[in-house]
Design goal:
elongated; HTH-type_TetR-like_transc_reg; Tet_transcr_reg_TetR-rel_C_sf; DNA-binding; Tetracycline Repressor, domain 2
């Protein structure tokens, strides 16, 4: 009979894989994609290189999993704020951009890795897919604002694409050489203000 893993074995393997991805994410945040070798990740996870390959067939496969998990979490957080946060659509747009930017500044190494750092080609492809997901959640709240008469008539998809690109571009340099203290706070405030102007929100009275 072929060997079948017991539930206990499956649980141990799942826990080991989860630990490996968590440690790989930390290595990427601290050292970047280029330096997140299988050897470095194995050392950080306290396992052998061979054990890493039991879970992932290649460094690229591990990098893609790290990117998907980390980026997926950020998209989910942003989407929750934009869809379920307090206030009207314009207020939620401002809140969402602020939350996204502050989270990036608090996790600078990881945010830079997700947004712009040189990476495996497969990670570059994943970036394109996650840009689409960011655009989708921005388009939802812009469309809602237009329908409520709070934003001028516009193509929400175009505005969402502009927001996605501009927010990432504004953050890239500060994340590579991060501002601290008041500078970081001012950056977030300016980014929120720019996003509202991009969507055509009326200036606060």
């Amino acid at each position: 009979m072929p060997y079948r893993r017991t539930p206990a074995v499956e649980d141990r393997l799942a826990a080991a894989r989860e630990h490996l991805v968590e440690r790989a994410t930390s290595v990427v945040a601290e050292a970047g994609w280029a330096n997140a070798s299988v050897t470095a990740v194995a050392a950080a996870a306290g396992m052998s290189v061979g054990s890493v390959y039991q879970h992932f067939p290649s460094k690229q496969a591990l990098a893609v999993e790290v990117f998907r998990r980390a980026s997926g979490h950020e998209v989910d957080v942003l989407g929750e704020v934009l869809r379920e946060g307090t206030g009207d659509p314009v207020e939620r747009l401002a809140l969402g951009v602020g939350v996204f930017a502050r989270r990036a500044m608090e996790r600078r190494g990881l945010a830079h890795a997700l947004l712009a750092a040189p990476a495996e080609p497969a990670v570059g492809q994943e970036r394109l897919e996650f840009r689409r997901r960011y655009r989708a959640v921005f388009a939802e709240v812009v469309r809602e604002g237009v329908d409520a008469g709070l934003l001028p008539r516009q193509d929400p998809e175009i505005t969402a694409a502009a927001l996605t690109g501009a927010i990432g571009e504004v953050l890239v340099d500060p994340l590579a050489a991060p501002a601290e203290g008041p500078e970081a706070g001012r950056l977030v405030d300016e980014l929120v203000a720019m996003s509202l102007r991009c969507a055509g929100a009326r200036p606060a009275a």
